[in-house]
Structure formats: structure tokens, C-alpha cells
Write a structure and sequence with these properties.
- By secondary structure, the chain is α/β, with parallel strands linked by helices.
- It has two domains: about 5-120, 3-Layer(aba) Sandwich (Rossmann fold), CATH 3.40.50; about 135-225, Arc Repressor Mutant, subunit A (Orthogonal Bundle).
- Helix content is about 40%, strand content about 20%.
- It has eight helices and eleven strands.
- The protein has helices at about 10-25, 35-45, 60-70, 85-95, 105-120, 160-170, 175-185, 195-205; strands at about 5-10, 30, 50-55, 75-80, 100, 135, 140, 145-150, 150-155, 215-220, 225.
- The chain has a five-stranded parallel β-sheet, with helices on both faces. A four-stranded antiparallel β-sheet has the order 6-7-8-9, covered by helices on one side. A two-stranded antiparallel ribbon has the order 10-11.
- Helix 2 (about 35-45) packs across helix 7 (about 175-185) and helix 6 crosses helix 7 (about 175-185).
- It is elongated and about 55 Å long.
Length: about 230
Amino acid sequence: MTRHILIVDDDALMRRSLAFNLEQAGYKVSNAESAEDAFLLTDREPPDLVLLDIGLPGMDGLDALRQFREKLNLPVIFLTARRRELDEALGLELGADDYVTKPFDLNVLLARIKNVFRHIGQTVNQVVDQALLVIDDLTIDPAAHIVFLGNQNIELTPREFDLLHTFALHPNKVLSVDDLLASVWGAEFMGQPQVVYVHIRWLREKIEQNPNHPKRIVTVRGVGYKLIPQE
């Protein structure tokens, strides 16, 4: 089983470099530039481990740690540029599984990651239900990556599936373009709204009776999009 690691850090260069090296080491990697974006990602696809920077914009790493531990029970390794013993001790006291001080040696980090996985064993407690999602005549099977509209199997690309799955996890809730970028594409696509517009159009062509007048995935002008269950 390929382990999934989520990197949460506002340094884009560091994220790209670390993601590349972790993928070379055999891990699946997602990334987010803020804690808020990270929570959107974990809604749809919870990771097995979070690499979490303390000095984040918005919600800081210590507050994010509380939520990762209390709500999702995810193992967390802190990545910190702060050298004060207090920060590191506080992080561990709050429930971080380990910490690595920047700049760090990649081999040291890989060893720490393996050590955390060894301690948590072969399974990780995930709170996100991977059972079927049924919204009126729309059925989504996250485990099998299958979508049915009535009795018809709808062929979706991986991105289209992830986009629909994100909407289905939040029916009737308006999701902004930034929300969708963070949840489906990750931090490296922030500021590229066109990928959302294009995939929304493609998804509507596959699940709407009239894609030019959508009833399921509707636009909330100036705010975003939402999935409306059909009676």
C-alpha cells in the first residue's frame, strides 16, 4: 500500500522540492499552502501523515495540529524554522508525533517518517467514510472510483471524479473556486481558476440533462458553485 503524505507549508519552492523527493521515495504526495486549504483536502482524501509547518499564514501550525489530532486523528510531523525549544516542546505536548527543524537533511526526514509509520502500524484511523455517497439519483463510490446516474455508469476522468466527490461531500454548500482548487488540485494550482471553469463545464456535460442550463451543479454568481440534490 502506497502511503499518502500531505505537506502543509507556505513556501512553494520547499513544497515542490519536498514533494518530488517524497515521490521518488515511493510516497503519494498532496500539498497545501495553508491549514485551511489542508482541511479541504483532507475532507476528500485523508492522508496517512501530515508534514506541518508551524509558521503558516492564517491559522498557525499549532492550532492546525489540534484539529488534525482531535478531529481526524492523523499523525503529524512538525517542520519548523523556529529554533526555540519551547515551540518544539509545545508541539509535541499538543500531540505532534515528531518534529524536524529547517533546514533539514532529507534522509533524516525520511527516517522520521518511517519511524512514525512503524509506530502507527499498518492501518491509520480515518474518519472519512469511504462508503457510497448517494444524493438523489447520483451514486458515488469513492473506493471504486465509480459514479452512477440512475442505472447509468458515468465515465469520469480522475479530476472530474474528485471534483464531483468534493461537491457530494458538501451538498447545498457553496464552494468557491479557491476552495475547489485547494481540495481537488492542491496548492500549486492556486491562482489558476481556469482549470476549475473547464472541469466544471466537462462535468456538467456528463451529468446534466442540459449542460447549458445546469440544475445539479449551479453557479452562485460572484461566490462559487454548489451541488443541488434533485428531488
